[in-house]
Amino acid sequence: MIIPWIRGLLGFDKAPMTWMLVFVNVFFYLLCAESNRKAEMAPLNQDLPLTGHYYQIYLQQKGIFADEPTTETQWSILGAKALRDPEFLNELDFLIAPGDQIQLRNWKLSTEKFFSNLKKRNSWIFGLHAENQETLSWVTYQFVHANVLHLVSNMVMLLIFGSALEAMVGGWVTIALYFIFGVFGGIGYFVLSPNSNIPVIGASAAVSGLILFYTLSEIRQRVPFFYIVTPLEGHYGWIYLSKWFLIPLLFVGDFKDYFSAPDEIVSQIAVSAHIGGLIGALGLYILIRSKSAAQSIFANRARL
Protein backbone atom coordinates (compact mmCIF):
# COMPACT_ATOMS: atom_id res chain seq x y z
CA MET A 1 0.00 0.00 0.00
CA ILE A 2 1.21 3.50 -0.79
CA ILE A 3 -0.25 6.74 0.53
CA PRO A 4 0.55 10.27 -0.67
CA TRP A 5 1.77 12.29 2.29
CA ILE A 6 2.66 15.60 0.58
CA ARG A 7 3.07 17.95 3.58
CA GLY A 8 1.51 15.61 6.14
CA LEU A 9 -1.56 16.35 8.22
CA LEU A 10 -1.02 20.02 8.98
CA GLY A 11 -2.50 21.30 12.21
CA PHE A 12 -5.30 23.82 12.62
CA ASP A 13 -2.76 26.62 13.11
CA LYS A 14 -1.31 26.04 9.63
CA ALA A 15 -4.42 25.03 7.70
CA PRO A 16 -7.45 26.47 9.55
CA MET A 17 -9.81 26.66 6.57
CA THR A 18 -9.20 23.06 5.58
CA TRP A 19 -9.94 21.99 9.12
CA MET A 20 -13.11 24.12 9.06
CA LEU A 21 -14.27 22.18 5.99
CA VAL A 22 -13.58 18.94 7.84
CA PHE A 23 -15.48 20.17 10.92
CA VAL A 24 -18.49 21.14 8.80
CA ASN A 25 -18.49 17.72 7.12
CA VAL A 26 -18.30 15.92 10.47
CA PHE A 27 -20.92 18.20 12.04
CA PHE A 28 -23.31 17.62 9.16
CA TYR A 29 -22.80 13.86 9.45
CA LEU A 30 -23.47 13.89 13.20
CA LEU A 31 -26.47 16.17 12.73
CA CYS A 32 -28.00 13.67 10.33
CA ALA A 33 -26.96 10.59 12.29
CA GLU A 34 -30.23 10.05 14.16
CA SER A 35 -32.46 10.55 11.13
CA ASN A 36 -30.09 8.33 9.17
CA ARG A 37 -30.49 5.63 11.81
CA LYS A 38 -34.28 5.80 11.63
CA ALA A 39 -34.24 5.79 7.84
CA GLU A 40 -31.95 2.77 7.82
CA MET A 41 -34.69 0.87 9.64
CA ALA A 42 -36.85 1.24 6.51
CA PRO A 43 -35.67 -1.55 4.20
CA LEU A 44 -34.57 -0.91 0.64
CA ASN A 45 -34.77 -4.53 -0.48
CA GLN A 46 -35.86 -4.96 -4.06
CA ASP A 47 -36.15 -7.98 -6.36
CA LEU A 48 -33.65 -6.83 -8.97
CA PRO A 49 -33.97 -9.79 -11.38
CA LEU A 50 -37.76 -9.39 -11.46
CA THR A 51 -37.37 -5.63 -11.89
CA GLY A 52 -35.03 -6.36 -14.78
CA HIS A 53 -37.66 -8.57 -16.45
CA TYR A 54 -40.31 -5.86 -16.23
CA TYR A 55 -37.83 -3.22 -17.42
CA GLN A 56 -37.07 -5.38 -20.46
CA ILE A 57 -40.80 -5.48 -21.24
CA TYR A 58 -41.03 -1.71 -20.76
CA LEU A 59 -38.14 -1.07 -23.16
CA GLN A 60 -39.66 -3.35 -25.78
CA GLN A 61 -42.96 -1.50 -25.50
CA LYS A 62 -41.00 1.70 -26.11
CA GLY A 63 -39.50 0.19 -29.25
CA ILE A 64 -36.08 -0.23 -27.66
CA PHE A 65 -34.74 -3.69 -28.34
CA ALA A 66 -31.55 -5.14 -26.90
CA ASP A 67 -30.09 -8.57 -26.25
CA GLU A 68 -32.06 -10.31 -23.54
CA PRO A 69 -30.05 -11.14 -20.39
CA THR A 70 -29.31 -14.82 -19.95
CA THR A 71 -28.09 -14.99 -16.35
CA GLU A 72 -29.45 -13.95 -12.98
CA THR A 73 -26.61 -11.45 -12.60
CA GLN A 74 -27.39 -9.82 -15.94
CA TRP A 75 -31.07 -9.54 -14.99
CA SER A 76 -30.04 -7.96 -11.66
CA ILE A 77 -27.86 -5.39 -13.43
CA LEU A 78 -30.75 -4.55 -15.73
CA GLY A 79 -32.99 -4.22 -12.67
CA ALA A 80 -30.53 -1.85 -11.03
CA LYS A 81 -30.51 0.22 -14.21
CA ALA A 82 -34.33 0.32 -14.12
CA LEU A 83 -34.30 1.82 -10.62
CA ARG A 84 -32.11 4.63 -11.92
CA ASP A 85 -34.35 5.43 -14.89
CA PRO A 86 -36.73 8.29 -13.93
CA GLU A 87 -38.92 7.81 -17.02
CA PHE A 88 -39.52 4.16 -16.20
CA LEU A 89 -40.36 4.99 -12.60
CA ASN A 90 -42.77 7.75 -13.59
CA GLU A 91 -44.65 5.36 -15.89
CA LEU A 92 -44.69 2.49 -13.42
CA ASP A 93 -48.46 2.57 -12.86
CA PHE A 94 -49.10 2.27 -16.60
CA LEU A 95 -46.85 -0.74 -17.19
CA ILE A 96 -48.71 -3.66 -18.77
CA ALA A 97 -46.96 -7.03 -18.69
CA PRO A 98 -48.08 -10.54 -19.58
CA GLY A 99 -48.05 -13.32 -17.04
CA ASP A 100 -48.90 -13.34 -13.35
CA GLN A 101 -50.87 -10.14 -12.68
CA ILE A 102 -50.81 -10.62 -8.91
CA GLN A 103 -47.02 -10.79 -9.05
CA LEU A 104 -46.99 -7.62 -11.20
CA ARG A 105 -49.23 -5.77 -8.74
CA ASN A 106 -47.12 -6.85 -5.76
CA TRP A 107 -43.97 -5.80 -7.56
CA LYS A 108 -45.41 -2.34 -8.25
CA LEU A 109 -46.33 -1.97 -4.58
CA SER A 110 -42.85 -3.15 -3.54
CA THR A 111 -41.18 -0.67 -5.89
CA GLU A 112 -43.35 2.20 -4.64
CA LYS A 113 -42.40 1.28 -1.06
CA PHE A 114 -38.75 1.12 -2.08
CA PHE A 115 -38.79 4.74 -3.26
CA SER A 116 -40.95 5.87 -0.38
CA ASN A 117 -38.28 4.59 2.01
CA LEU A 118 -35.47 6.00 -0.14
CA LYS A 119 -37.00 9.48 -0.03
CA LYS A 120 -36.84 9.45 3.77
CA ARG A 121 -33.06 9.27 3.69
CA ASN A 122 -30.80 12.29 3.97
CA SER A 123 -29.02 11.24 0.81
CA TRP A 124 -32.29 11.96 -1.03
CA ILE A 125 -33.22 15.08 0.94
CA PHE A 126 -29.83 16.79 0.79
CA GLY A 127 -28.26 14.94 -2.14
CA LEU A 128 -28.21 16.00 -5.76
CA HIS A 129 -30.39 14.07 -8.19
CA ALA A 130 -32.86 14.48 -11.04
CA GLU A 131 -35.70 15.45 -8.69
CA ASN A 132 -33.63 17.75 -6.51
CA GLN A 133 -31.56 20.31 -8.39
CA GLU A 134 -32.29 23.31 -6.20
CA THR A 135 -29.44 25.76 -5.70
CA LEU A 136 -28.84 24.73 -2.09
CA SER A 137 -28.58 21.05 -3.04
CA TRP A 138 -25.45 21.80 -5.08
CA VAL A 139 -23.84 22.79 -1.77
CA THR A 140 -25.42 20.38 0.72
CA TYR A 141 -24.64 17.26 -1.32
CA GLN A 142 -20.94 17.95 -0.75
CA PHE A 143 -21.37 17.48 3.02
CA VAL A 144 -23.59 14.38 3.10
CA HIS A 145 -21.92 10.99 3.59
CA ALA A 146 -23.40 7.52 3.50
CA ASN A 147 -21.47 6.08 6.46
CA VAL A 148 -18.43 6.56 8.68
CA LEU A 149 -16.03 4.93 6.21
CA HIS A 150 -17.25 7.21 3.42
CA LEU A 151 -16.75 10.24 5.67
CA VAL A 152 -13.33 9.26 7.03
CA SER A 153 -11.84 8.36 3.65
CA ASN A 154 -12.90 11.70 2.17
CA MET A 155 -11.75 13.69 5.19
CA VAL A 156 -8.28 12.10 5.21
CA MET A 157 -7.79 13.05 1.54
CA LEU A 158 -9.20 16.52 2.23
CA LEU A 159 -6.75 17.04 5.11
CA ILE A 160 -3.76 15.82 3.11
CA PHE A 161 -4.41 17.78 -0.08
CA GLY A 162 -6.56 20.62 1.22
CA SER A 163 -3.97 21.64 3.79
CA ALA A 164 -1.15 21.37 1.23
CA LEU A 165 -3.12 23.55 -1.18
CA GLU A 166 -4.01 26.01 1.57
CA ALA A 167 -0.30 26.44 2.32
CA MET A 168 0.15 27.39 -1.32
CA VAL A 169 -2.83 29.59 -2.19
CA GLY A 170 -4.43 30.52 1.12
CA GLY A 171 -7.47 29.40 3.07
CA TRP A 172 -10.24 31.36 1.40
CA VAL A 173 -9.08 30.34 -2.06
CA THR A 174 -9.04 26.70 -0.92
CA ILE A 175 -12.63 26.95 0.32
CA ALA A 176 -13.71 28.61 -2.92
CA LEU A 177 -12.02 25.88 -4.95
CA TYR A 178 -13.72 23.20 -2.82
CA PHE A 179 -17.17 24.54 -3.68
CA ILE A 180 -16.32 25.23 -7.32
CA PHE A 181 -15.06 21.70 -7.92
CA GLY A 182 -18.04 20.32 -6.02
CA VAL A 183 -20.37 22.12 -8.40
CA PHE A 184 -18.42 20.76 -11.36
CA GLY A 185 -18.79 17.32 -9.81
CA GLY A 186 -22.56 17.73 -9.84
CA ILE A 187 -22.48 18.87 -13.45
CA GLY A 188 -20.32 15.88 -14.34
CA TYR A 189 -22.83 13.56 -12.68
CA PHE A 190 -25.76 14.93 -14.67
CA VAL A 191 -23.85 15.02 -17.96
CA LEU A 192 -22.05 11.68 -17.71
CA SER A 193 -24.84 9.76 -15.95
CA PRO A 194 -27.97 11.37 -17.42
CA ASN A 195 -30.12 8.29 -16.95
CA SER A 196 -29.60 8.01 -13.20
CA ASN A 197 -32.13 8.99 -10.55
CA ILE A 198 -29.91 7.93 -7.63
CA PRO A 199 -28.63 10.84 -5.45
CA VAL A 200 -24.97 11.79 -5.57
CA ILE A 201 -23.49 12.67 -2.17
CA GLY A 202 -20.11 13.24 -0.57
CA ALA A 203 -17.06 15.49 -0.70
CA SER A 204 -15.12 13.27 -3.09
CA ALA A 205 -15.89 15.30 -6.24
CA ALA A 206 -14.60 18.47 -4.59
CA VAL A 207 -11.62 16.62 -3.12
CA SER A 208 -10.78 15.10 -6.53
CA GLY A 209 -10.65 18.61 -7.97
CA LEU A 210 -8.44 19.82 -5.12
CA ILE A 211 -6.03 16.92 -5.67
CA LEU A 212 -5.63 17.63 -9.38
CA PHE A 213 -5.38 21.39 -8.86
CA TYR A 214 -2.68 20.81 -6.25
CA THR A 215 -0.79 18.45 -8.56
CA LEU A 216 -0.84 20.98 -11.40
CA SER A 217 0.17 23.86 -9.09
CA GLU A 218 2.93 22.16 -7.07
CA ILE A 219 6.34 23.42 -8.19
CA ARG A 220 8.15 20.47 -6.61
CA GLN A 221 8.61 17.63 -9.05
CA ARG A 222 8.92 15.02 -6.30
CA VAL A 223 6.68 14.68 -3.26
CA PRO A 224 6.76 12.24 -0.32
CA PHE A 225 4.73 9.03 -0.14
CA PHE A 226 4.42 6.56 2.71
CA TYR A 227 4.56 2.91 1.71
CA ILE A 228 3.96 -0.28 3.67
CA VAL A 229 4.36 -3.85 2.47
CA THR A 230 4.26 -5.53 5.90
CA PRO A 231 4.61 -4.18 9.46
CA LEU A 232 8.09 -5.73 9.64
CA GLU A 233 11.07 -3.41 9.91
CA GLY A 234 12.41 -2.45 6.51
CA HIS A 235 9.10 -3.17 4.80
CA TYR A 236 7.68 0.33 5.26
CA GLY A 237 8.94 3.88 5.09
CA TRP A 238 9.06 7.05 3.03
CA ILE A 239 9.81 7.46 -0.63
CA TYR A 240 9.88 10.49 -2.92
CA LEU A 241 8.14 10.03 -6.25
CA SER A 242 7.13 12.29 -9.11
CA LYS A 243 4.08 14.39 -8.29
CA TRP A 244 2.52 13.08 -11.51
CA PHE A 245 2.33 9.64 -9.90
CA LEU A 246 -0.65 11.02 -7.95
CA ILE A 247 -2.82 10.96 -11.06
CA PRO A 248 -2.62 7.24 -11.93
CA LEU A 249 -2.53 6.32 -8.23
CA LEU A 250 -5.77 8.12 -7.40
CA PHE A 251 -7.74 8.46 -10.62
CA VAL A 252 -7.10 5.59 -13.04
CA GLY A 253 -9.62 3.49 -11.13
CA ASP A 254 -12.32 6.13 -11.61
CA PHE A 255 -11.93 6.20 -15.38
CA LYS A 256 -11.73 2.41 -15.55
CA ASP A 257 -14.94 2.05 -13.54
CA TYR A 258 -16.77 4.65 -15.59
CA PHE A 259 -15.86 3.28 -19.01
CA SER A 260 -16.50 -0.32 -17.94
CA ALA A 261 -19.99 0.62 -16.70
CA PRO A 262 -20.99 4.09 -18.01
CA ASP A 263 -24.31 4.04 -16.15
CA GLU A 264 -22.49 3.27 -12.87
CA ILE A 265 -24.86 0.37 -12.33
CA VAL A 266 -22.51 -1.95 -10.49
CA SER A 267 -20.62 0.76 -8.59
CA GLN A 268 -21.53 2.41 -5.31
CA ILE A 269 -19.24 5.33 -6.20
CA ALA A 270 -20.35 8.24 -8.38
CA VAL A 271 -17.20 8.26 -10.48
CA SER A 272 -18.87 10.61 -12.98
CA ALA A 273 -18.91 13.25 -10.21
CA HIS A 274 -15.20 12.62 -9.58
CA ILE A 275 -14.53 13.14 -13.30
CA GLY A 276 -16.58 16.35 -13.22
CA GLY A 277 -14.43 17.65 -10.36
CA LEU A 278 -11.28 16.79 -12.30
CA ILE A 279 -12.52 18.56 -15.42
CA GLY A 280 -13.36 21.62 -13.33
CA ALA A 281 -9.88 21.67 -11.80
CA LEU A 282 -8.13 21.25 -15.13
CA GLY A 283 -10.28 23.90 -16.81
CA LEU A 284 -9.82 26.43 -14.01
CA TYR A 285 -6.07 25.88 -13.87
CA ILE A 286 -5.74 26.38 -17.64
CA LEU A 287 -7.89 29.52 -17.43
CA ILE A 288 -5.77 30.96 -14.63
CA ARG A 289 -2.52 30.20 -16.40
CA SER A 290 -3.74 31.55 -19.71
CA LYS A 291 -4.58 34.89 -18.09
CA SER A 292 -1.29 35.01 -16.19
CA ALA A 293 -3.25 35.30 -12.98
CA ALA A 294 -1.35 32.42 -11.44
CA GLN A 295 1.58 34.68 -10.59
CA SER A 296 -0.48 36.69 -8.13
CA ILE A 297 -2.11 33.59 -6.65
CA PHE A 298 1.08 31.64 -6.11
CA ALA A 299 3.37 34.55 -5.21
CA ASN A 300 2.87 34.12 -1.50
CA ARG A 301 3.35 30.36 -1.25
CA ALA A 302 4.19 29.21 2.21
CA ARG A 303 7.43 27.30 2.62
CA LEU A 304 7.13 24.51 5.13
Under the CATH scheme, the architecture of the largest domain is Up-down Bundle
Q: Strands of the biggest beta sheet: in what spatial order? A: 1-2-3
Helix/sheet category: mainly alpha
How can the largest sheet be summarized? 3 strands, antiparallel
Number of strands: 3
**What's the oligomerization state?**
single chain
Helix content: 55-70%
The gross shape turns out to be: elongated
Number of helical regions = 14
- SS strand fraction: 5-15%
Q: For this structure, what is the CATH homologous superfamily of the largest domain? A: Rhomboid-like
Low-confidence stretches: none
| CA distance, first residue to last residue | 26 Å
Estimate the mean pLDDT confidence: 85
Number of domains: 2
N-to-C order of helices and strands: EHHHHHHHHHHHEEHHH
CATH topology of the largest domain: Rhomboid-like fold
Cα-atom Rg, whole angstroms?
A: 22 Å
CATH class of the largest domain: Mainly Alpha
